[in-house]
Amino acid sequence: MSSEFADSGLMTAELLTASAELALPLVFFVPLLTALLVFWVGSTRAPWLPPLGAALTVAAAVVLIFGVANGGPQSHHLGGWQPPLGIELYADGFAAVMIALTAVVGLAVTLYAGPYLRGKGLSLEHFWPLWLIQWATLNGIFISADLFNLYVMLELLTLTGAPLAAMAADRAALSAALRYMLLALLGSLAYLLGVALLYGATGSLHLQEVGALLEADATAAIAAALITAGLFAKAAIFPLHIWLMPAHSNAPAPASAALSALVAKAVVYLVLRLWLWVFPVLLTAPMGWLIGGIGAVAIVYGAVQAMRQPRLKPVIAYSTIAQFGYLLLLLPLVVLPAAALPAWQGAAYHAVVHGLAKAAAFLAAGNMIYALGHDRLEGLRGLTPYLSVSMLALALAFASLMGMPPTGGFLSKWLLLSGAIAAEQWLWAAVVIVGGLLAAVYAFRVLAYVHAAPPSGWVELRAPRRLPRIMEWTPVVLALLALLLGVSGMPLLQLLAHGAPEIVTQWAE
Amino acid sequence: MSQAAFYALVAGALTGIGIYGLITQRHLLRRVLAVNILGSSVFLLLVALARRHPDYVDPVPHAMVLTGIVIAVSATAFALVLARRYHAATGLTHLPEDEESEEALAPGLLNRRSLADRRSGGGPPPGQPERRQGARRRSDEDRRSDEGAQ
Q1: Domain-by-domain residue ranges, chain A?
Q2: Taking CB atoms and an 8 Å cutoff, what residues of chain A touch B78?
Q3: B134 chain-A contacts, CB cut-off 8 A
Q4: Which residues contact B66 (CB under 8 A, 6 or more apart)?
Q5: Residue A143 belongs to what H/E stretch?
Q6: Looking at CA atoms only, how far is residue B95 from chain A in angstroms?
Q7: Phi, psi (5° rounding) for residue A390?
Q8: What residues of B are in contact with residue A461 (Cβ under 8 Å)?
């Protein structure tokens, strides 16, 4: 690795490492300030401003990721205030991986949103500030090391996510956004109640400090239960999932992609972050089984619901509910010495691959809505020539979601599976396999419609609307990246190793 | 009983009322109010926590409450606007309760009956605002040919 940098890139690498600490606040503040500026100036007067903000955000993210890759976890104290009072920003490998995912999907959403929303007659003036604040919030969740700061970020996520879900402003979208809003508010208040209890017990809000000070008593257990339940409501984990399908499938396609691939994912990230860094004292085998069991039910339930949907976007939305189940399987496996490392790598890898594949799938579905005016599966028959590129993206994304080799989905599921097998956890191994098979059922059901002959007597009186090229190719690039992650997984896994949680690394020695 | 413990108990009671209200009430305004009561209960607990030391008041929970109030105000404002828009669009003051009515609200979503209709009758499913021009024209032709047959 270092020899590659030795000649030309050594100076650059050093410079990047040095500026990584500076990039840490920038990944949050650049999109936030751009959003305010866009809101103030207006995107009709300065249409170049949102893409510029997105590009600068990606640049800051790249610098930060390089810094973490070369110099290990980075931290920054906002305003120079030290942690007990001040807010610490902290980026380890896990955060860097998620920031990378957000940068890629965020760029795709930014490129796609302009032509899509303009073509559908929706307001870009409203979309840009919401989306850029949402991007800032996502990065904020990944780098916050302060429990209360995380609460603020969670609320911001709701306050940007619900308007995006309501953008179509018809009956379905408004009722979906309201349902999302009410459940998400309940979830964040439950989270805040838990944080208050943790603060009462430890006198600290700093993630790692609370983790070090926390004892496994009743207060900690109640706090963990409140926080976990609150986050489950916001991430649509199984019994609290009802809001997700209508909210994600009625949002405009670029918003659906962001909501499903990033927003709900960031909340699941937080569940894992808190259990591995703050609550490891509470993570006993039965507790792991409880959460893993919820994940297993979600995998089966989401897949079965996805098979029954008559429209494409609900299929993809229910698939999100199922795919989040895999992330929860980490918690029962991470307490077992033989399974901890592969399960940890597999879950983090899954978060990234699912994000890419899900964004690709939603954008491909958006292409279908754009071209045909609907997303009914029945109407997909015989239309392959018009939408062939988009359908290629959809097929690649589905291949990754079901874990077909050589996609990234295969690698993440393989890691989870090998962990479960190494620790002789046959139930979890079976869940991973069955989940993949169920995903294949709903994926091939959709693809079967695509390749079926058109209904007899079907005459196209109006040709499908032509897709702008950028909309056609954005989902393909995302799906290809998900595929690429299956071929070459090492860079991501190396990045992930920086600042891995103690509960994983303790078995390595 | 100390003042802080009393506050904490009231906070617990308010939490119960808030969650109960959010679950049992269907009117959107009442649900938003229930969320606000729940929020107030959390703030009250934080204020009580600030007094857990006998000698001094901990400022950190107060700062949290201040931030929390700002967020609660903006979230409430947005929820109310959303509820008004929903009311203007549907005339309803509550969300559709079950999945059946959710499907009725979602345009373009085929339910099982219309799928069956389509299979048996060969005609397109009814009530689809997003249908393409071509399909609608085709259905008119179908109807005309059906009438001719009768």
Answers
A1: 284-455+464-509
A2: 159, 162-163, 181
A3: 459-462
A4: none
A5: helix A124-143
A6: 6
A7: -65, -40
A8: 132-134, 137-138
- Delineate the domains of chain B, giving CATH numbers in brackets: 3-95 (1.10.287.3510), 100-149 (no CATH)
| Distances, alpha carbon A172 to alpha carbons A50, A123, A181, B111, in Å | 29, 18, 14, 15
Q: What is the pLDDT of residues A245-297, one digit of tens each?
A: 888 888 999 999 999 999 999 999 999 999 999 999 999 889 999 999 999 99
Phi, psi of B16 (to 5 degrees): -60, -45
- pLDDT tens readout for residues A411-464: 999 999 999 999 988 999 999 999 999 999 999 999 888 877 776 666 665 667
CB pairs under 8 A between A and B: 127
Q: What is the pLDDT of residue B141?
A: 41
pLDDT digits (tens, 9 = 90+) for A318-357: 999 999 999 999 999 998 888 889 999 999 999 999 999 9
**Buried/exposed code over A111-136 (b: 16+ C-beta within 10 A; e: otherwise):** bbbbbbbeeeebebeebbbbbbbbbb
Q: Is A86 in the B-facing interface, judged by CB distances under 8 Å? A: no
Mutate to test the interface with A, among B130, B141, B142 (most CBs of A within 10 A): B130
What is residue B127's predicted lDDT score, i.e. its pLDDT?
44
Amino acid at A40: W
